[in-house]
TrEMBL record:
<dbReference type="InterPro" id="IPR011711">
    <property type="entry name" value="GntR_C"/>
</dbReference>
<dbReference type="InterPro" id="IPR008920">
    <property type="entry name" value="TF_FadR/GntR_C"/>
</dbReference>
<keyword id="KW-0804">Transcription</keyword>
<dbReference type="Pfam" id="PF07729">
    <property type="entry name" value="FCD"/>
</dbReference>
<dbReference type="InterPro" id="IPR036390">
    <property type="entry name" value="WH_DNA-bd_sf"/>
</dbReference>
<feature type="domain" description="HTH gntR-type">
    <location>
        <begin position="13"/>
        <end position="81"/>
    </location>
</feature>
<keyword id="KW-0805">Transcription regulation</keyword>
<dbReference type="Pfam" id="PF00392">
    <property type="entry name" value="GntR"/>
</dbReference>
<dbReference type="InterPro" id="IPR000524">
    <property type="entry name" value="Tscrpt_reg_HTH_GntR"/>
</dbReference>
<dbReference type="InterPro" id="IPR036388">
    <property type="entry name" value="WH-like_DNA-bd_sf"/>
</dbReference>
<keyword id="KW-0238">DNA-binding</keyword>
<protein>
    <submittedName>
        <fullName>GntR family transcriptional regulator</fullName>
    </submittedName>
</protein>
Amino acid sequence: MPDSPVPPIAAPRKVSELVVERMTGLIERGEWPVGSRIPAEPELVAQLGVGRNTVREAVRALEHAGILAPRRGDGTYVRAASGLDAALGRRARTADALQVLEVRSLLERGAARVAATRHDEADLAALRAALADQESAARTADDRTFRAADVAFHAQLVRTAGNALLTELYDGLDHVLVRTLATDAHGRHHRDVPGHREVVAAVAAGDPDAAERAVTATIDAVRAHLVADAPGEDA
């Protein structure tokens, strides 16, 4: 018998690639959450035990991938939780609001149905807490805080379905979803759309049909606001 072929020796990996993996892991685990500023370069050098050039190369690679974003005079921030998030975000930013809303409808209606049949008590508690935050922000918070609370509620509904891939797909759209929250002539986002309490009640009751109807009511109301507020439309 002929001898088995000897596998080639793999070239050693660049240290900067290992640093990219380490930093990506910190982001994916939530230790560096989306929207947060990463440690300054001297801190990264000390924490990772590598040189400045290696840190800079790794940061540039993650910026090119859309995961990190520099802010002049204010450091570097986490823009996306993964490469998939970054790619989805780039694509969504080129779509119009009604297209993003249609994607929201497809994902959220399916997630609501699954959540109604698959959730556990911890999921339900988190969903109720997100609803409470959303309702409180709708009453008292500034517009930016309200938008964040509203997006967080919808994201929690999707997480309650218990499908990690679906959650990642939806989270990849988080930072552009606020474009689908219709605004009036003064730029304030509508806070009176129906369906939020109803979907939580339906999930708690284990009623997938009612959960889907509640999401549909929310999406329909947002769509109506978008159409009414479109340029050239009457207020």
